[in-house]
Amino acid sequence: MEWLIALFCSTLLALIAYFKRKLSFSGLFAAIAVGTSIFGATGIYGFIVLFFFFVSSTLLGMIKRVSHSAVERVVEKGDRRDYLQVFANGGLAAASALAYALLNDAVFLVVMCASLAAATADTWASELGRWSKARPIHILTREKVEPGTSGAITTLGTLASVSGAVFLALVSIPLILQGKGNLGFESYMAIMLIVVAGWLGNWMDTYVGAKWQVRYQCPDCLAFTEKTVCHTQTVQVAGIRWMNNDMVNAICTVSAGFFAVFLTLMFRFL
């Protein structure tokens, strides 16, 4: 019965997002799969964590200071998330939720929440960073670049990433408190751990994006972009061809999960 409720609620939320043009058709089914897994495995508190991640990210995506044309010239995909984007952001969280249901070890709740904290931090940094009056600075070259460039940061975006990780960790409190399986340390430490692991995951995203994400240039307008087609077929000028934004986002959440496991085990044996 709980899984049927999970399927119903996840489908309802995903359909709303789909008709609001926040999910593509493939993203619709991916979101149902992720939502059902998390709700069914962790209950209403786990679903609330996912809900606040998705809703906060969606609402921030509706607020644009930088024009759509300025950002769309750089980024590979638009606001509608496809299945790759959904799984990159929520796939580890869903897998961790299922592992928690099977093994009754609260470490998987921490991993789930840390991965979503990293995704939240990344999304908040990207969306709120666009409000910065200063142009983003590439973390490796120290050069000013176009808004939306992977591996670039602003002060506002950095503060937003911390806020996103803290927000998601606070939303996770009821889930951590009612979780099965002994963490081996106080619950408030788990909340701090989620913040740290989530923020570190976001920084891993920034570094990998700056170092290895594929980058193209349009021969016509000379703009640097993540797209393979701008005004015409673009030319790869940097990065690894398969290291696109979806892969970088997946590295963000997975690395946050690894940080969460490492920190949890460290606290357990201290």
UniProtKB/TrEMBL annotation:
It is a multi-pass membrane protein. Its main location: membrane. Keywords: Membrane, Transmembrane, Transmembrane helix. It holds the Pfam family DUF92. The chain crosses the membrane at residues 29-62, 83-101, 107-125, 152-177, 183-201, 248-269. It is found in: Membrane. Belongs to the TMEM19 family. This is Uncharacterized protein (TIGR00297 family). It comes from Caldalkalibacillus horti.
